[in-house]
Amino acid sequence: MTSEQTHVFIKNDNARVLLSEQEIKQKVQELGAKISEDYAGMCPILIGVLNGSFIFCADLFRAITIDCEIDFIKISSYGEAMETSGVVKLKKDIDAHLQDRHVLVVEDIVDSGLSVNYLRKRMERVKPKSLGFVSLLLKEGAAQTDFKIDYIGFSIPNHFVVGYGLDYAQRFRNLPAVYLMDEQVL
Ligand code: IMP
Ligand code: MG
Q1: Where are the domains of the chain?
Q2: Would you state the pLDDT for residue 15?
Q3: Which end of the chain has fewer CB atoms within 10 angstroms, the N or the C?
Q4: Which CATH architecture has domain 3-181?
């Protein structure tokens, strides 16, 4: 897809919008309010998972009204494909000290569950006071996790999606809404 085609994809294909900007905005505010309530007085540290969650993370961070901090970890499992490679690679580790902190990992989407399982193991090693997970999206029926994702924005059908930080081969992260990506637009 050329950048001109991307433009067409955004402008004319409303049918492919899965979650509108407005719906996302409202959900992020709700999640921020809930987290602010649950973590009041605890100064949680959010760990954004790069690259996919950077936009959600920035919006969620601003929707949280209590004292909180932020750091990032970078992992990859998808390469340029639409399916997980089955192997999670650590590309950038966390810098912050997480021992005895209330840690909240911020994911864009949970698909197979491989990434969150990996992240849980990585985070447990540093002995946080508490460990929580928030994900904007959860693919229905796909995730295999033996623990609960504490905060979920939306459960979505098991399709490949792009936009609001989510990419296909590093593109479409800048789309303002979440779109269903099908083979025809590739
Ligand atoms: P999992 O390890 O299979 O749960 O996949 C998690 C990661 O893969 C997410 O954090 C995303 O970065 C990426 N991913 C999974 N599904 C999609 C999708 O539909 N669109 C774009 N990226 C996805
Ligand atoms: Mg991700």
Answers
A1: 3-181
A2: 52
A3: C
A4: 3-Layer(aba) Sandwich (3.40)
